[in-house]
Amino acid sequence: TNSNEPPLVFHWFPFIGSTVTYGMDPPTFFKENRAKFGDVFTFVLLGKKTTVAMGPSGNDFVLNGKLKDVCAEEIYTVLTTPVFGKDVVYDCPNAKLMEQKKFMKIALTTEAFRSYVPIISHEVTDYFKRCADFKGKSGVVDIPKRMAEITIFTASHALQGSIIRNKFDVSLAALYHDLDMGFTPVNFMLHWAPLPWNRKRDHAQRTVAKTYMDTIVERRAMGDADKELDMMKHLMNSTYKNGTKVPDHEVAHMMIALLMAGQHSSSSTSSWIMLRLAQYPHIMEELYQEQVKVLGADLPPLKYEDLAKLPLNQAIIKETLRLHAPIHSIMRAVKSPMPVPGTKYVIPTSHTLLAAPGVSASDPAYFPNPDAWDPHRWEVDSPNAPTIIRNAVVEDEEKIDYGYGLVSKGSASPYLPFGAGRHRCIGEHFANLQLQTIVAETVRHYKFRNVDGGNTLIGTDYASLFSRPLEPANIHYEERD
Ligand code: HEM
Ligand SMILES: N#Cc1ccc(COc2ccc(/C=C/c3ccc(C(F)(F)[C@](O)(Cn4cnnn4)c4ccc(F)cc4F)nc3)cc2)cc1
Fold it and tell me: Where would a tag sit more exposed on the chain, N or C end, judged by fewer CB atoms within 10 A?
């Protein structure tokens, strides 16, 4: 390596480099090499020199990089464009993505959220009634499979509107599965290869996009009779700054992108939540008591306003995302040599940059007893409260507007499950609403515990694009009388 490049992780074979050790368990790989080299080091990932920049300053370096220095679409487009479709997200200039995020964000209003809570509650209750795996008063269930179904129904109905939800019968669900097959890290390399899953992906993308485009035509014909407050309706009526209306195919492709985003992130997170509640049944009991105390023993149907009155219910999602963030590696291409502040390193354009916000989220310097899943740590006076809260240093987080509203730069924060800066997530509030409603509804129906009654937790599968629990992950459920 040149004198001013970061240290290179030792590896035996060129091209393969550290791909396998990294790919099997990224967090361990990051932690072990951080101990050796500090917050900035380089490793070879499928023949590409990849420089990791960790800790709050590393997160800032990568996530708040200037447009002239770092590029997301160059890395991600090979993976996302065949799945989402052309002209959206990473298949267009960043300025166009910023406008698309503005359209998406405008549709995610409080008024829309108010209508989503009963929709999601109903989908969850209905699912538990219909699902064969939950038919007995008690039993064992493979929870990730069930949560994948619950999230696709709740997300498609709320985010995509009832017409698409009703089309999510067997056919669309099967097509969604084929689309999903193309959403794998192997396609960072083999996206072009005429492999069976890539042909299925391409057929599914065309078919799903056509279903959406037919629905757009259907709804346009309905005119004012169509009262639903969903994303599709809003995107159909959006116009770019240069005056052009969003074309139907771009609406369809953005809807697929949002479906994929929402599905993978929420089904992984909700699976981890349920596994953690089975690991710690007393927390599930506390959640139930919190609702009884705040909403009354008759537990009236959940409303949007109720969610803000259930702090432990909210803390469950925060704590689960702290230890189980679905996106463990955020990557950028380097477009011009980048000096790393406070070091002598200059990252050349031949490298890829990688941010791993999850590493600082389990750093004892910021989170005492970091590996403990302790939702109470988010209460201010808890012994495990994050350092930033304990010092009551309420950083007036720097905010910046990239064209889709003010977002926190998050530059000093050790907890960034939704990213930060230009590419920050716009689905955070929807995800929290969806997950909080699913959890609040579930604790009303069931008590969970590990099948063996112990307090172990299953391992993580890092081989797919979003880290998620290894499967099958069985838990024991018992109907709450
Ligand atoms: C627990 C749930 C979720 C988590 C943890 C999550 C996480 C993230 C992260 C880390 C990023 C930044 C990616 C990068 O910088 O390369 C991101 C971006 C994004 N997410 Fe999410 N997300 C979640 C749910 C959602 C949902 C429900 C939607 C849509 C309704 C969504 C849509 C997006 C979009 C459009 C971006 C912008 C990508 C860009 O600007 O390059 N996400 N998300
Ligand atoms: N051999 C081997 C071998 C090698 C390596 C490995 C493991 O290596 C890696 C490396 C990097 C990554 C990156 C994850 C990654 C990035 C981007 C996206 C995304 F773009 F898709 C997303 O952000 C997703 N998203 C956002 N919010 N919710 N979902 C998104 C944005 C907008 C949008 F509209 C829709 C979206 F859904 N998704 C996932 C995963 C695994 C294993 C094996």
Answer: C
For residue 427, report the distance from its CA to the centre of ligand 1, in Å. Answer: 6
pLDDT digits (tens, 9 = 90+) for 457-468: 999 999 888 999
Q: Is 46 left (phi over 0), alpha (psi -120 to 50) or beta?
A: left
- ∠ Cα 396 402 403 (to 5°): 120
Q: Which tens digits make up the pLDDT trace of 399-457?
A: 899 999 999 888 778 999 999 999 999 999 999 999 999 999 999 999 999 999 999 99
Q: Is the pLDDT of residue 126 over 60?
A: yes
The per-residue pLDDT for 207 is: 94
Report which bound ligand comes closest to the CA of 427: 1
pLDDT of residue 1: 57
**Ligand 1 mean position, distance from CA 389 (Å):** 25
Question: How do 48-53 and 460-461 pair as beta strands?
Answer: unpaired
Ligand nearest to the CA of 419: 1
Ligand 2 in contact with 75 (CB < 6 A)? no
pLDDT at 228 over 90: no
Q: What tokens does 419 get?
A: 């990213």
User: Do the strands 48-53 and 352-355 form a parallel or antiparallel pair, or are they unpaired?
Assistant: parallel
Residue 390 in this model has a pLDDT that exceeds 70? no
Q: What is the ipTM of this complex?
A: 0.97
Going from the Cα of 232 to the center of ligand 1, the distance in angstroms, rounded, reads 18
Q: β-strands 460-461, 468-469: how paired?
A: antiparallel
Q: What is the DSSP letter of 6?
A: P
Asked whether 179 lines ligand 2 (CB < 6 A), one says no
> What is the tens place of the pLDDT at every residue in 47-71?
999 999 999 999 999 999 999 999 9
Torsion angle of the four alpha carbons 295, 299, 301, 303, in this order, in degrees rounded to the nearest 10: 20
Ligand nearest to the CA of 180: 2
Do residues 467 and 326 lie in contact, with contact meaning Cβ atoms separated by under 8 Å? yes
Terminal alpha carbon distance of the chain: 65
| Residue keyed to tokens 């990294």 | 22
- How crowded is residue 411: how many other Cβ atoms within 10 Å of its Cβ? 18
